[in-house]
Amino acid sequence: MLAVTWNLLAGYGGMVSVGQQASIGLGAYAVAYLAQTVGLNGFLALPVAAVMAGVVAVPVSFLAFRLVGGYFAIGTWVVAEVFRLLTVQWDAVGAGSGTSITSLSGYDRDVRLALTYWVALAAAAVVVVGSVLLVRSRFGLGLAAVRDDPVAAASTGVGVTTAKRVVFVLAAAGAGLAGGVLALGSLRVQPDSVYSVQWTAFMVFMVVIGGVGTIEGPIVGAVVFFVLQQTLAHYGATYLIVLGVVAIAMVLLAPRGLWGLLAGSRGTTLFPVGYRAVLGRRS
């Protein structure tokens, strides 16, 4: 979910954000608050958390879109830090020490883990399918035009700012959904954890490794990331160094990512989202 939504934002929307952890934190805390204070079932709180993250992203976009390029990236990071600092001051969610989701303690542990897994899988499927449908739509074509040349896209009637804002909000909702899943998986939410910039670093790694601007790339990158993490996690911080070396090597040797290497010149795809002009013969 994290890789696909960041790729939608950067790979298709052309907006490189390093502050998606803001939406992750919002989603996680929304699930915790709804489950603990409001009394809503934690699993049912997931879609509500996604919507809340998307709604909050709307006013944020008006601030972030005043910045471009590297300033936009830094600005989103600042926004995430502001959200973290505000959360630390909010006593209703445990302030700086965070909060636990004890309302799910009534579930048997194995049942809860199984439910969390299947809910996470369903959420990931929704995010992937939604991204495919979005990119294949007329809106997706306009979005690709905005990414490649905003001035040319505007001259053909594409609403540049609107297209960017829609993708920005959808990416925030997807990250909020992922944050909610993380909260249900650990039953514990802490500001320094859910608002950590490492989440965005992991997103960037997965997308760069798999292939920017493709649907398949983030999925392949997520698998590679998981394998490396599970294999090297017991080496401590060393595995982070390995991730960095792998990312640099991929950027230099295979800028199209692993999926670009697998697809080759034939342009093989599992999720066809592009359009090709076919020249017909006149009889």
Automatic annotation (TrEMBL):
GO terms for cellular component: plasma membrane. One of its GO terms (molecular function) is branched-chain amino acid transmembrane transporter activity. InterPro entries: ABC_transp_permease (IPR001851), LivM-like (IPR043428). It is a multi-pass membrane protein. Keywords: Cell membrane, Membrane, Transmembrane, Transmembrane helix. It is found in: Cell membrane. Its main location: membrane. Signal peptide: none annotated. It comes from the Bacteria. The chain crosses the membrane at residues 12-35, 42-65, 115-135, 166-187, 199-228, 235-253, 259-279. PANTHER family: ABC TRANSPORTER ATP-BINDING PROTEIN (PTHR30482:SF17), HIGH-AFFINITY BRANCHED-CHAIN AMINO ACID TRANSPORT SYSTEM PERMEASE (PTHR30482). This is Branched-chain amino acid ABC transporter permease.
